[in-house]
Amino acid sequence: MPRVDINVVRKDELEHKRWSGGVTTQLAIWPEDADYAARKFDWRISSAVVEDEESTFTPLPGIHRHLMLLEGGIELAHEGVGSRLMIPLADVAEFEGGWETRSSGRCVDFNLMTAKDYEGKMESAAANKKIKLPMPPASRCWYGFYSIADGVAADIEKDGRFARVTLDRGDFLLISYLPAPGDELSVTLGSQAEIPAVSAAVWRKS
Fold it and tell me: 23 CB contacts (<8 Å, ≥6 apart)?
């Protein structure tokens, strides 16, 4: 079975910073000595509150982006590429950080940013269903769950054994593991909410 490291960051431990259109909350970043302000990072998971009705995204050349809405609604427009309306907890937008991107509307969003040597995915996480974590041909994987409900019981299963952590709204669970063919690692989110969390997975390209 893969080696697994489990880390829970509580809501009151997270750092919030203002940006041009609102407030951003960093949930996780890699490597450990990464510096987002200096644009020196391999990947970053965050959430942001977009307060301005019209907002321009920070240029991030060389970074691939995933974005999902948690609340609200926006139209996302990429200069010379196109635009789309975003539906909370349903749509995932993928785009290049170097594109000139604007949004219209207010929202709370969930973000994954990856540098060129990394790839990932993002999705909403349904309650009471076993979520199998990916085992790509990579040296290391990270899978994060951002809780949007209170009292979520996250059962992490490996080798027939369980580890349980309880998450409240705004808490972040990050699972780091070394994938291997044939191994299985899964998470089940026990909750009365239909969608108690959103998730982002990232790994280094083989």
Answer: 16, 17, 48, 49, 51
pLDDT at 1: 46
Supply the DSSP symbol for 100.
-
Structure confidence by residue, pLDDT tens digits, 3-51: 899 999 999 999 999 887 889 999 999 999 999 999 999 999 999 999 9
Same domain? For 97 and 26 the reply is yes
Between CA 135 and CA 178 the distance in angstroms is: 8
Alpha-carbon distance of 176 to 23, in angstroms, equals: 27
CATH code of the domain in which 182 resides: 2.60.120.340
Q: Which residues, in sequence order, are CB contacts of 100 under 8 Å at separation 6+?
A: 56, 59, 78, 79, 80
- Do 181 and 169 lie in one domain? The reply is yes
Single pTM value for the model? 0.94
